[in-house]
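S1.2 Input.
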Amino acid sequence: MSVTESKAVSGTRKAAKNPKKSAQTAAVEQALANTPVIMVPLSQLALSPLNVRKKTPDAAKLQELADSIHAVGVLQNLIVHQLPDGQLGTAAGGRRFRALNILLSAGLITAQYDVPVKTVSEEMAKIVSATENFQHEEMHPADQIAVFGEMHHDGKTAAQIGGVLGYGTQYVQKLLRLAGMAPALLAELAEDKINLDQLQALSASEDHARQLDVWENAYGYYSAPKELREAVLKGEVAAEGNRLLGFVGREAYEQAGGGFRFDLFTDEGFISDIVLLQTLTRQKLTEIAEGIAQAEGWKWSEGRADGISTYGDDAQKYLLLNLPHGELTTEESARFDALDKQLEALSEQDDSDDADHDALELAADACQAEMSAIEKAAENRAWTDDVRANGGVVASLRGNVISVRRGVMLRSDIPEVEKKAGVNHTITSIRTEGGSETTEQPKPLSAALAKSLSSERTLAVQAALAEQPQMTLVIFVHDCLKSTFNHRSYALSTLNVTLHGKTGLMLDNAPTSADGLAIQHLTAMHEAWQKLLPEDWHKSWDWLLTWDTQQLINVMGYCLAKTLNGASERLSDKGGKAGKDLEPVEALLNFTLRDWWQPTKANFFGRISKEQIADSLLDAGLSGAATDALKLKKGDAAELAEDKIVLTSWVPDCLLPVAVVADPQVGDDVINTGTDMPDADPETATDVAA
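S1.3 Output.
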């Protein structure tokens, strides 16, 4: 079984208790204080059905308690109530009752052993049992859910239950909601096969069949709460963190008639009219685009939620003009030079150990922002009047920022435009019919990081390949055929079969992978095979004659898989990929890197710039976290990225197979909207974008 076929169950969260005692709790304590202790024989006691702790106690701890009772006796009385058969049911003190029975079974005490008890009514027994268990060792969540459900069934509200047991009302409400989950899932909770976070994620749907179907098919990464929640919602749109809702504003959405389906486990719930929200988004962006077009003299304008793509329907409708080169005025040039010198001075000050690094970083960011604005203003001025008279401007959303793209032509207008002198030479697409797309080159990764990432990718593919020995054999035979039947071929072999594994080299290149999933899996397989090797196995191959063909293929597949070497010190020329040579093997295996590896501070985020961290979060759809990262120190931003990225399936683009990425377009102006952006009038939007 693949290592990815195991459901990850994290530790169960514990609720914070309310230290205040309710009046009812105080009354129960007072009643117990007034109840006398009597001695009854062990034979008269039984475990009460009202005892809320259903999960069997830890055997080792129970034996320790039994040994203690045998040594010093029962130091704390049990709470009991009358059962229909005349026995006394133990409502509080179930562990002591079980420990006494261990001693009885061992012959260390008799059935007449005297046990101190206090006898109460059946109603009080249930409250006492719950109170004692909640106030001592934390009850298992499955037991909490059961007792909350029973008390609610008896007519108590969430506030009353919380008041009796010392828990917040909201926590009780959450567990009451979980009490209505599919019984099979509650049974898995009791067996620690699912945790509260995962159960809460599945509760987004009230359909038991849907809950079970999603859980039964959730393996590896897909058992994370976020993935479970998305799967169980069947495409419903969550309001929390929704970029369109953040842009339009909840108040505007509700005023337009939009509603929400509220959910107990989120602050927002779910958007009930996504079409309305998309319409409001488009209208607001259209107003911004119109304001810019009117102020700058563009022929037309458009607002849309997503930027213009350079393929598909957009490629048939639009043509993106090359960005003009803007010339700075004398005043702008002087200001730009002054800002550049100021940046240099700030950098020198930042080298001092006693410098206020945060303040200096803010000042440097302000300088860079002003310099970018000066360049952008010059670029905008450089658009000629005839281009403005025939082209348009498009405003769209990129994450939580407004992206403004000038110089967009409608292909339907081009025949008419070409008839006009002085215009044709300016109409050169960023992406020609047979050419390539002009893209802004990202900051390159260091050679050390490129080697590390390509090595981590190699380890993951080694582990996946070792699981499929038949595929390893296919690759190996293909390499043999290339060598034997096409001796003039200069194509490199996929597997570097030198009878030396490359796993150790990959570990040297990427020390952060030592505790990774791929290494864990390879180590487990290595140990399993090693156990099958006889003593002095290396001295003769006679013992291999007893193995069947499939065993030989399997062990050969494992050994050959470890010869795979996709490490490189530079990214590929095409697509900028780390470990690009691994792509054919990944395709053969139907391999997904995220099943084996995830970016962390140690292996990725801590080794790139803060701006690249923010870009990574934005690319992963975490626009809010991207904004937060830019406000933090680099180390803190890297930790934030590690914490947030685990909620997604994102990995760096340099580790993915080559794919066309069309949006955002080069040259788009971006305006940070934040999460609570107020409605912007066209003039304000024009000023910011200009």
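S1.4 Remarks. The chain is about 50% helix and 10% strand.
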